Amino acid sequence: MDELILGSHVGMSGKDMFLGSVKEAEGYGANALMVYTGAPQNTRRKPIDELNIDAGLEYAKQVGIREVVVHAPYIINLANSVKPETFELGVDFLARELERSAALGSKALVLHPGSHVGAGAEAGIGKLVEGLDEVLAQDESGVFVTLETMAGKGGEVGRDFEEIATIYERVQKPERLRVCFDTCHVNDAGYDLVDDYEGTLARFDELVGLDQIAVIHVNDSMNPRGAHKDRHANIGEGSIGFEPLRRIVHDERFAAIPKILETPWRCEEGSTKKTLPPYKEEIALLRG
Is the pLDDT of residue 164 over 60? Predict the structure, then answer.
């Protein structure tokens, strides 16, 4: 089998910008990375020509970083049918994030499907589809809008495989969609990766298709299955445990897909501040 494509979320800031992201990933022993193009909580972004992309991509080639994934900011909520200004901001910003993703050499822009903010799943999905149609009708980036499987907290859309399938069925250009399969979210949504790994994947395959998975977020969960909470745990330290996570990372059906860690940072001994990234150790653990 080809070498595992495995990495983590990394930062992008300072004068190095994307070059710094690649160097951080290299330091973790990764051959893939995921970045936000700016702070995930807001829409402030530097122009593409200030992201130091060429130097970053050149260095990535030198050190064997094979895949770049971009994560859209949480502030995009296309499922909001209550506030037109939130929806319009989301449409505009998603279009620009697809351009930035293409410039970074990414094939996938991971997007949280959003929240219906109390209007109900049907209204939320309807609005999300409207927004995706508006963006994809104009977009020529070729980057896949990669819908993340969600844990189902609050008014989240995409809380089960059926809802993801419904979005695919209703959108005008389903060929421009893909899925980010988040192990913590899938567990918290109620699917059994521990005792029914194959059954869970068979259900996803039946409804959406395993070939639609473009990114896997590899996270353990602090919560029991079906809790609808979404709190990531370090690898092997949560309710999913090491073996199911190792299994999905090494699953030959996903050999060509980047697997990305988003596990919590650790505290130095005697401190309560999370200052130590766990990714170097966790990538080595999963590779082993």
Answer: yes
**Amino acid, res. 40:** P
Q: What is the mean pLDDT of residues 7-29?
A: 97
> Sorting pLDDT into bands at 50, 70 and 90, what band is 275?
very high
Q: What is the pLDDT of residue 1?
A: 40
Structure tokens at 192: 């059994």
Q: What is the largest CA-CA distance in the chain?
A: 54
> Which pLDDT tens digit goes with each residue over 102-127?
999 999 999 999 999 999 999 999 99
Residue 191, Ramachandran bin (φ over 0: left; ψ between -120 and 50: alpha; else beta): beta
Task: Give mean pLDDT, residues 251-260.
Answer: 98
- Rounded to 5 degrees, what are φ and ψ at 97? -65, -35
- Nearest-5° Cα angle at 79, 76 to 81: 115
**Bridge pairing between strands 32-35 and 6-9:** parallel
Note the pLDDT of residue 42.
Answer: 87
Q: Is 270 left (phi over 0), alpha (psi -120 to 50) or beta?
A: left
Joined tokens for residue 65: 């970083």
Average pLDDT, the chain: 97
| DSSP for 98-119, written as a single string | HHHHHHTT-SEEEE---B-TTS
Beta pairing, strands 259-261 & 232-233: unpaired
What 3-state DSSP class applies to 221? Answer: strand
Tokens of 248: 């999905």
Q: 227-231, long-range: CB within 8 Å, 24+ apart, which pairs? A: 227/151, 227/188, 228/151, 228/152, 228/153, 228/159, 228/188, 228/189, 228/190, 229/151, 229/153, 229/188, 230/150, 230/151, 230/153, 230/184, 230/185, 230/188, 231/184
